Amino acid sequence: MISIKRFVILLVAILISSCSDDLPPLNSWEQAVEGAYAADLSADGRLSMVSSIHHGLSLWDVKQQRQLFQWSHQNQQNNQVFLVKIAEGNHFAISASRDDFVVWNIKTGQALGYWRLSESSIRDVALSSNGQQVLLGLGNGKVIHLDLQTGRRLEFLGHSEKINSVALSANGRYALTGGNDYQALFWDTQTAQVLLRFPHPGRVSSVALQSDGRYAFTSDNGKLARIWALPSGEQVSQLKLTARQNIFSYVTFANQGEWLITGSAARKLSLWHVKSGQLLQDWLVTPHQKTRPKSAVVYSAAMLDNERLASASSSGLVEVWQINK
């Protein structure tokens, strides 16, 4: 006869093995048949933008699961767009290759302009809500802030090594940037003045700003991921990571700053509590059938409501997941 102690251990093991990251999505649909180079969901989850291997750029209505626009990034024969971002407010979007970018009007589907850089490769981009201010993180350690309306160009030289991640406030006034020099910097895009420094023991791989400016997120290529209060710079929490290394492929704040959503290159989509840093729930996005080994990069995620969130990944799928409360 099995003892009560062994029964309890067995029951706990069963519960752990059937945790939420093994559950299938509530719904999913394909936006890129052979997979995607990049994808982004709008903050409200209503729109998705995809750079696919064979079909260039496309903008989708997530709720109706229909394509709104098919775009061509400078009529390139081979799609080289590896960065796409939908600006807050859903009025504008940006697509970028290693050396150029295009800003799009989501309402009309028209390109607002094409800009090219020759000095260094683009590693990350961000766009203000009015579509007029662009932030570019470069491989040479520079961060460039462009005002597309006035033509003003500011080169931020606060970093000494290549930039890995950039974030821009909705109004374009503040930037958060992280690089291989073991630091993330919060700075004023009008003056280039550094307002806050967030040092890390490793290369800073991800940064994010909360939409109403209350929080900032920084993480490195080791096991340190922290949430900071703005403008004080005081630490709010540190994510309680279990893996020795947990490099995020995507990070965003959600639910008015109550939660943080992260994605990884190993299929994992996670929901965290901002003030405690506790993990609330995990999911595993679906890999593309033809990939070997079976894996997928989480490119983007967004809350649909208080009970569901959506993800977009390299498999070319948008998937909807149940939040257990």
UniProtKB/TrEMBL annotation:
Assigned keywords, A-Z: Repeat, WD repeat
Coiled coil start-end: none
Xref: InterPro entries: Quinoprotein_ADH-like_sf (IPR011047), WD40/YVTN_repeat-like_dom_sf (IPR015943), WD40_repeat_CS (IPR019775), WD40_rpt (IPR001680), WDR55/POC1 (IPR050505)
Taxonomic source organism: Agarivorans gilvus
Pfam families documented for this protein: WD40
WD repeats: 156-197, 197-238, 241-282
PANTHER family membership: POC1 CENTRIOLAR PROTEIN HOMOLOG, WD REPEAT-CONTAINING PROTEIN 55
Name of this chain's protein: Vegetatible incompatibility protein HET-E-1
Domain of life: Bacteria
